[in-house]
Specification:
This protein has 384 residues and is of the alpha/beta class. It has 12 helices and 14 strands. Helix 1 runs parallel beside helix 11.
Length: 384
């Protein structure tokens, strides 16, 4: 009766079942997995509501790529970061998840492949399967800092590879794409006419400067690349449901790509009029929320750097909202997570949620309120 896309086990895993039981029993859980900014104790200014006090949002005027002034607001966001992006290269979506769906529709046929980093964002398999696309992985390797294994990436390409996905900075490793890596990827993918898809939702959250870092692919002029971001992360406003795609690269590829993307978007017309009308104001208001997030994640990272020692190791992180702690391989990641939850009432994410190739890693959210983060990290360190 149902599509073969749904090949997953719908039953909750052991960690989820244990968490549900504890919460049902009223046990207070110290949650170090919080990634929802609207539930992280941030201060949201009252001006957010005023951004929607406009008569024009009562009129529906469907525009497949998105309203011009909303796309101009996105262009100003990039200009403020040193990258010139014309509004005609921007297409609005309701989220980056929808942006992935649009790009898979644009670039692939059923059975085609996309390459994704490992470890990384845990929803790639689901997003690709919904479009009947196969996911293949390429490894990120850690030698004091994370890097793309470019040889392994090249070996993973097949004649059905249609895109290489970058998460920049990566979730959860917090590693940015480097200039040498980009040059290699552009040469490799241009020869095979493979697109680059760069998920840049955390790009504003860098810990320090690095001239070797590539903050965005929105300014490249070779091959074909797509940069994605949205208000969810850069302004801490996931409830507003506004994301976008920026098409970059050679005009001979970029222009027909935009034409086809507009055709896809015209089929769905998913982006709400109110959020498009309010976009320019939301970018302005979002700056104050982003500043709070940057301050918090930096404070928590500094505390982790001072605290994690001995049997546990804090892996280097360049940006984003997460940090990875390597713990002794005396038990599996699932056993570590279950031990912390059952004995310490502490919730962390095991590395296998992000497809780490080896054990044992735990992933913590730097978005956690500092007092909770400190208590949780203390419980974790005492357990190692």
């Amino acid at each position: 009766m149902f599509s073969s896309r749904f090949h997953w086990d719908f039953h909750p895993n052991l960690l989820t079942r244990t968490l549900q039981t504890k919460r049902r029993d009223g046990v207070p859980i110290l949650d170090l997995t919080q990634s929802n900014p609207t539930q992280a104790g941030l201060l949201y200014p009252p001006a957010l509501a005023h951004a929607f006090e406009q008569e024009r949002l009562l009129r529906y005027d469907p525009t497949p790529a998105g309203m011009r002034d909303a796309r101009e607001a996105v262009a100003r966001y990039y200009a403020a970061r040193g990258t010139a992006v014309e509004p005609d290269r921007i297409l609005l979506t309701a989220s980056t998840s929808e942006a992935y769906a649009y790009l898979f529709k644009l670039l692939t046929d059923p059975g085609d492949q996309v390459l994704v980093p490992r470890p990384s964002y845990p929803l790639f398999e689901f997003l690709a399967a919904m479009e009947s696309v196969e996911v293949r992985s390429y490894p990120l390797v850690y030698h004091g800092r994370w890097a793309i294994d470019l040889d392994a990436l090249g070996s993973a390409l097949t004649d059905r590879t249609r895109a290489v996905i970058l998460v920049n900075p990566n979730n959860p490793t917090g590693s940015f794409l480097k200039r040498e890596e980009l040059a290699h990827l552009l040469e490799l993918c241009s020869l095979r006419e493979i697109a680059l898809i760069s998920d840049e939702v955390f790009s504003d959250y860098a810990f320090g400067d690095d001239p070797d870092r590539v903050p965005t692919l929105a300014g490249i002029d070779a091959g074909l690349a797509f940069s994605m971001s949205g208000l969810s992360k850069i302004a801490g406003l996931p409830q507003m449901k506004l994301g976008w795609i920026v098409a970059s690269g050679s005009p001979r590829h970029r222009q027909p790509a935009m034409e086809r993307l507009e055709w896809i978007a015209d089929t769905y017309l998913s982006v709400g009029t109110p959020v498009q009308c309010a976009a320019a104001r939301l970018f302005e208001i979002g700056d104050s929320i982003q500043q709070q997030i940057r301050a918090r994640t930096y404070e928590n990272l500094q505390f982790a750097a001072r605290t994690v020692s001995g049997a546990a190791t804090l892996l280097a992180v360049e940006g984003g909202w997460y940090v990875v702690v390597q713990v002794p391989r005396v038990r599996s990641e699932e056993e570590w997570a279950m031990e912390l939850l059952t004995r310490r009432n502490l919730l962390v994410q095991p590395g296998f949620f992000y497809d780490f190739e080896s054990e044992a890693f735990l992933v913590l959210s730097l978005l956690t309120p500092p007092e909770l983060f400190r208590e949780g990290l203390d419980r974790l360190v005492r357990s190692t």
